[in-house]
TrEMBL record:
This is Ferredoxin. Residues 148-177, 178-203 form the 4Fe-4S ferredoxin-type domain. SUPFAM superfamilies: 4Fe-4S ferredoxins, FMN-binding split barrel. Its cofactor is [4Fe-4S] cluster. The lineage of its organism: Bacteria, Bacillati, Bacillota, Clostridia, Lachnospirales. Keywords: 4Fe-4S, Iron, Iron-sulfur, Metal-binding. PANTHER family: PHOTOSYSTEM I IRON-SULFUR CENTER, PHOTOSYSTEM I IRON-SULFUR CENTER-RELATED. InterPro entries: 4Fe4S_Fe-S-bd (IPR017896), 4Fe4S_Fe_S_CS (IPR017900), PSI_iron-sulfur_center (IPR050157), Pyridox_Oxase_N (IPR011576), Split_barrel_FMN-bd (IPR012349). Ferredoxins are iron-sulfur proteins that transfer electrons in a wide variety of metabolic reactions. The keyword Magnesium does not apply. The keyword Iron-sulfur applies. It comes from Blautia acetigignens. It comes from the Bacteria.
């Protein structure tokens, strides 16, 4: 798996869930399909009068979720910004050409109420529950720093094997200390809760 494949899978899913936060801190989710994909960014359409647009203009942070029939989850976390004015029509025309249904929703010049946003910097997480063991990996779109996540076993490990016994994916290997294979870890915390010497830490 890689970033290009993840973006292609998102495009094939078509309708994606976009999560934002409103001015009162409440989570908001919308399904969006008016999207155009480029290798290094993607663009999407909404109307200026919608609360979704207001939240993007005020904050910009967004999480986007795609889920495939193969039990793959792709989650993109980034910041959206409005495309510069002299490029709005270019990207709007492209999106309307790729998504013909939009002409029924915004016929004629009513599309001018729309605004195009771009995301070109994001963390993209791939998580496949359809394989055994599960598989997860993180990719980068643009220039962003990724915060390390998950569970790690420290030098305090005594090698008792309790973590292996409690791991549902059997992704912990013996060693000094034991090692969690991050690409197969569920992040469930079972090893963390059951380690008798608290050698497992959460990032």
């Amino acid at each position: 798996m890689d970033l290009v494949t993840c973006l292609k899978k998102m495009e094939l899913v078509g309708v994606l869930a976009f999560a934002t936060v409103d001015s009162e801190g409440a989570p908001q989710i919308r399904n969006i399909s008016a999207i155009h994909y480029e290798p290094d960014a993607f663009y999407f359409f909404t109307a200026r009068g919608k609360n979704f647009c207001k939240e993007l203009m005020e904050d910009g942070r967004v999480q986007i979720l795609a889920y495939t029939k193969y039990k793959e989850m792709i989650r993109l976390s980034g910041k959206a910004y409005a495309v510069v004015e002299n490029e709005q029509k270019k990207w709007m025309d492209i999106i309307f050409e790729e998504q013909p249904y939009l002409a029924n929703v915004y016929p004629g010049d009513t599309r001018e109420i729309g605004i195009i946003f771009c995301i070109d910097k994001a963390e993209v997480e791939y998580f496949n529950l359809g394989v055994n063991p599960i598989f997860r990996e993180t990719y980068i779109l643009g220039n962003v720093n990724v915060k390390e996540k998950g569970y790690y076993i420290t030098e305090s490990c005594i090698g008792c094997g309790t973590c292996i016994k409690h791991c549902p994916q059997k992704c912990i290997e013996k060693g000094t200390p034991f090692v969690i294979r991050q690409e197969h870890c569920l992040h469930c915390g079972n090893c963390y809760e059951n380690c008798p010497v608290k050698a497992v830490v959460r990032k």
